[in-house]
Amino acid sequence: MLIFWLLIIPMVTAGICVFIPKHSVSKYVSIAGSFITFVYNIVLNCIAYKYHTLQGFDGFFYLDSLSILSTQIVSLVGFAAALYSAGYMEAELHDGEFSEKKLRWYYFLFHMFIFTMLSVCVCNNLGIMWVAMEATTLATTFLVGFYNKKPHHEAAWKYIIICTVGITLALFGVILTYHSAKGTLGGIGYALNWSELLKEADRFEPHLIRLAFLFILVGYGTKAGLAPMHTWLPDAHSQAPSPISALFSGVLLNCSMYGIIRYHILASKCVGAEYSGTLLMIFGFISILVSVPFIIVQKDFKRLLAFSSIEHIGIIALGFGFGGMYGVYGAGLHAFSHAIVKSLLFFCAGNVFLKYKTREIDNIKGAIKIIPVTGVMFLIGIFAITGTPPFNIFLSEFLILADGFSSGRPLAIIFCSLVTIALVLIFVGFVYNMFKMIFGSSEPNPERGEVSKFTIVAMGFLLFFVLVVSIYVPPFLNKILQDIYDIVRNV
Amino acid sequence: MTHQIIVNSRTVDILAVLMLMSTIVLIGSSRLRVCIWAYALRSFVLALVSGLIAYFSGIHHIYVATGVSIALKVIVIPGFLFYIINKIKIKEDVESFINYTMSLFIACGLILIAYYSTQSILTFENVFMRHCLPVSLAITLLGFFVMISRKKAITQILGLLAMEDGLFFAALSTSYGMPLVVELGVFFDILVSVIIMGIYVYRIKETFDTIDTDVLRELRE
Amino acid sequence: MDLSSKIALPVLQLIVIVGLAPLVKGFINKIEARFQNRRGPSIFQPYYNLIKLLRKDAVVSETASWIFRATPYVTFISILIIALLVPVLSSAVPANFTGDVILIIYLFALGRFFLALSSLDTGSAFGGMGGMREMMVSTMAEPALMLSVFTVSLATGSTNLGNITSTMVDQSTILLNPSLFLAFAALAIVIIAEAGRIPVDNPFTHLELTMIHEGMILEFSGRYLALIEWASSMKLLLLLTILVNTFLPWGIARDMTFPAMLISFALYVVKIGFFAFLIVILEMSFAKLRIFRVPNLLGTALVLSILAIISLYVVG
């Protein structure tokens, strides 16, 4: 029942926000709603942490350490995004991009989006998890095409078509899983509950489970942005409003990976970790490779950040694919770190856009003088995202690569070496492109000063977490990550 | 529950082939309205099939799925698609990237692939329903093919619906449907996605003045 | 079968096919006229036409060769031979040897081949056009025809039409095989193409842009035209007979007793009449397809027939 309330809060917030006509009120409601979600999630996670797992609603909900990490990411970044939206959308409204009436729908869809993502992470029933995944696509299509113009429509159309196709393929995987489970478990009601499936997984027919995992990987992988199904990602993430882009890159991709990992665990128990692990490694590696050239030649900074997300999801997939202690720990840590750093970067990008009114890198110069706070955080963010020590991304990437090199499998070693080179190239691409924006000066300059206070607060909030986790992994986070390794290894 | 329910019916097989034929009409027809009617026919036959399976197997919650299926897929969704077509006033020709005869043969090839690949998974209990699994996989593959080879946005929606139909039928014939909650969730998802896609077709027509998705090429690299 | 039935059956079959064919055409024309709110010609009008044509002189172009003069006879006789190979009133076929399904298809092809050659023979433009289009249609229609008939053969275990019919009558549950549904659909489309009805070809038109069959026979006159027209109406009847007696064979006589033959004949007339009626409905509902779209329709038929046979082979 407790878990149920976690889902109710964002729904209620969404409902209230629709009816509030004035933005000045609704932004506070939205912030309050997401704050309550955040706090309630912390409380829930503490309880779950204490009891190791938490079930609710007669096995319908299930929280273990993997869910704890994922839901925490959703509510944390959700709260930051709500804070940021208050400032960002206010500024856009001021500029006349859309009407206040439309903004109500923005908040409605925003909180429904949070609701659907939380549903994905707490559902035990794999079928309902599928429904929630599809619901995330549906809730966000209008958000992607929020500004009613040509490139936005194109991005939204590609997004909904490609993601729905992917998720339909994943449905086939769910059906296959249900079919093999039904043969073993017999009963109709319990046959799709993950916790029940896990207990009986070694009795399933291997051929069916292999096929099911492949379909799930391709299907949910489309939503997660794994190459070669990533083609919608740069368009959707760059055309959406910045707070939504942050939620996409940091959180939604994470939730999709969550779905893949749940099936990975089932498949590992049934046919051994080699099969699903190798597939994850391959897709992750291809994603990283694909993103490198696009990052280097990019002209639009939001697209650049989107391609960077593809790269990082590839790293997470690689970590889970390697499957060793450091790999899984690193992947979990990476999921968390990437979410907060990427969101911070998207917020900074949004501020830059608000100031300069363009997304082209070549047209932006000297940001550190015009919007100093944003500029500094942008700089920190860039170093963090490319894996520069001493930031948190460096830690997680290092752990994952260490696991790959030490695993002894030739494929893993080859992948790791190439990935290391790729990471260096990405660092070069980022520094080359972004530094052009931050430093330098050109005439005429826009007027000095930040656009909105809310945005600064949101970014500061995220920066706090970035700095903390870079230096010190708190013991509870440590334990959660180790638990995740145990879950993945079925110990 | 330990006893296995087996549904063994020739009628279901024949209806499965009828569904396959209406999907071939989807590939083969050159008029948009005919394609939507073919979709409505297929959904109706699918509803009949699920009703029959509910009757033979005695699993009553499939009746609910049948009812929702008829309401949604036979009445609401085709009606909505016709409404969108009338509203956007386009040339009702199906345009495709691949020429017609080629796409027909590719469709044939896909169906053959479906038959051959499911050969090994065929069970020996329900001897008379052997066409169901290949047909469901074939409909899914054909839907996927329609999505990638057709230019008009409406036909892409139809391809998506064909994929969902194929998967629903696969679930129905192999494991007699999924838990009711999941099935209702899937229906609801399909309805909302068709509505959202329909709205986007309308918006694309307003901005680009065509629903030929070939023009959606501005965002490159 | 004793000697009398050995002679009686072929003669009876020939009389039925040759005699009934113009009536089928007259029936179709009459019903169609009624639907179009006209009185229409009498049902026996095709007979009157044939008699008229047989009495007239034949005019032959100077540039025509022996092919032109031979074609009407070749077409007519090949159709007559097919009439002896198809079970009409009884499941016992007069000329009964294995593989005759293939022979039937090739006899149809023989007639068509000669007709196409003769259309080029006179050197007229319409003839060449008609012949070319006929060949295009047959390129796709013939494989479809073959495959759908082979599907039925595979299901019943014989290529002899007589055996197929008797097996069908004995074990009706074979008919419930879904692959046979696909074969039926393919065969229906092929029949429309081969017999030259709407939506493939318009049998009433004489506009040069729209005719296939009419274009090929434009130069024939007198008794030649009579033979060719008779042959084409027999072709339609034979195709319908194959369809009816393969897929809906109930009521066919197993032996040669008089009551059984009478019932069989009555049922045969009813079934043919029903399908003729369906053809009328089809002609009323659809417009003729533009010539470059005809391969689309036939392609669909081909695909259906391929699927029929493969699905039968794979699934059983």
Sum up the structure in keywords:
heterotrimer; A: 491 residues; mainly alpha; two-stranded antiparallel sheet; 19 helices; 80% helix; C: 316 residues; 11 helices; 0% strand; globular
Structural topology:
The complex is a heterotrimer of chains A (491), B (221) and C (316).
Chain A: H1 2-18, H2 23-51, E1 54-56, E2 61-63, H3 65-94, H4 100-122, H5 126-144, H6 150-185, H7 194-200, H8 206-224, H9 232-239, H10 242-271, H11 273-296, H12 301-322, H13 325-356, H14 367-370, H15 372-385, H16 392-406, H17 410-438, H18 453-471, H19 475-488
Antiparallel strand pairs in A: 1-2
Helix pairs in contact in A: 1-2, 1-4, 2-3, 2-4, 3-4, 3-10, 3-13, 3-18, 3-19, 4-5, 4-10, 5-6, 5-10, 6-8, 6-9, 8-10, 8-11, 9-10, 9-12, 10-11, 10-12, 10-13, 11-12, 11-17, 12-13, 12-16, 12-17, 13-15, 13-16, 13-18, 13-19, 15-17, 15-18, 16-17
Chain B: H1 10-28, H2 32-57, H3 61-88, H4 100-117, H5 132-149, H6 153-175, H7 180-208
Helix pairs in contact in B: 1-2, 1-5, 2-3, 2-6, 3-7, 4-5, 5-6, 6-7
Chain C: H1 3-35, H2 45-55, H3 66-85, H4 100-121, H5 125-156, H6 161-170, H7 178-194, H8 213-216, H9 222-247, H10 258-285, H11 294-315
Structure, described:
The complex is a heterotrimer of chains A (491), B (221) and C (316). Chain A has 491 residues and is mainly α. Chain A has one domain (2-488). Chain A is built from 19 helices and two strands. Chain A has helices spanning 2-18, 23-51, 65-94, 100-122, 126-144, 150-185, 194-200, 206-224, 232-239, 242-271, 273-296, 301-322, 325-356, 367-370, 372-385, 392-406, 410-438, 453-471, 475-488, and strands at residues 54-56, 61-63. Chain A is globular. With 221 residues, chain B is mainly α. Chain B has one domain (10-119, 128-212). Helix content of chain B is 73%, strand content 0%. Chain B has helices at residues 10-28, 32-57, 61-88, 100-117, 132-149, 153-175, 180-208. In chain B, helix 1 packs parallel to helix 5 (132-149), helix 2 (32-57) packs antiparallel against helix 3 and helix 2 packs parallel to helix 6. The mean pLDDT of chain B is 83. Chain C contains eleven helices and no strands. Chain C has helices spanning 3-35, 45-55, 66-85, 100-121, 125-156, 161-170, 178-194, 213-216, 222-247, 258-285, 294-315. The radius of gyration of chain C is 19 Å and the shape is globular. Chain C starts with a helix and ends with a helix. Classes of the chains: A mainly alpha (491), B mainly alpha (221), C mainly alpha (316). Chains in contact: A-B, B-C. Chain A binds chain B through residues 125, 127-128, 130-131, 134-135, 137-138, 141-142, 145, 148-151, 153-158, 160-161, 164-165, 168, 171-172, 174-175, 178-179, 182, 186-189, 191-192, 234-235, 238-239, 294, 297-298, and chain B through 1-2, 59, 140, 144, 147, 153, 156, 160, 163-164, 167, 170-171, 174-175, 178-179, 181-182, 185-186, 188-189, 192-193, 196-197, 200, 203-204, 207-208, 213, 216-219, 221.
